Amino acid sequence: AQTVTQSQPEMSVQEAETVTLSCTYDTSESNYYLFWYKQPPSRQMILVIRQEAYKQQNATENRFSVNFQKAAKSFSLKISDSQLGDTAMYFCAFMKHWRSRLTFGEGTQLTVNP
Amino acid sequence: DAGVIQSPRHEVTEMGQEVTLRCKPISGHDYLFWYRQTMMRGLELLIYFNNNVPIDDSGMPEDRFSAKMPNASFSTLKIQPSEPRDSAVYFCASHSGTEAFFGQGTRLTVV
Lengths: 114, 111
Hints:
The structure holds 2 protein chains of 2 kinds. By secondary structure, chain A is mainly beta. Chain A has strands at residues 3-5, 10-14, 19-21, 24-26, 33-39, 46-52, 60-61, 64-69, 74-79, 88-95, 102-104, 108-113. Helices cover 0% and strands 57% of the residues of chain B. In chain B, strands 2, 4, 5, 6, 9, 10 and 11 form a 7-stranded mixed β-sheet that branches. In chain B, strands 1-3-8-7 form a 4-stranded antiparallel β-sheet, with no helix packed on it. In chain B, a hairpin with a 3-residue loop joins strand 4 and strand 5.
């Protein structure tokens, strides 16, 4: 079974600075998919970024980028130029193949301070 | 498209009562998932359907929980009888194949 671990329960950052959230996972699969989801106080689950394991290039979406280290089974999220609206719980998630279940980490509560 | 629609958004019920949560997936999505979020256990899968057929219900905690998908546009999650430990946020999600789209969740409180 796959497991996802987020070792940082809480983090804080000053507005406009950069922050990195960590995630490690365990799987015996060679092809899979990784995601970061954002959950603001409204509790809506919002997809931030996805990474296909077969792609060596790290995914980027505007201010959000990942550092995907397949051998180390590490998948960190970097948020540049942090904004107050980035304050939320962030979940790392693993998916074995398209349309299969998502396995979530414990979450990291990120607070962006003005 | 209005996205995945869940109802109700909040539900407060007394222990022992039957509770039914509802979900309307995005049209054309053939996979539907029910997840539960609690402080203690985080986000966990309860059950998922493909083309209205339950594929994996191993996450359903016990016989008090049941889920149905009578057609492609509607699914229910029922708890009977409800217990205080069922208090959680219940999410429904449908898949496009490349992305899981979540509803806004139902916050269930059993008192």
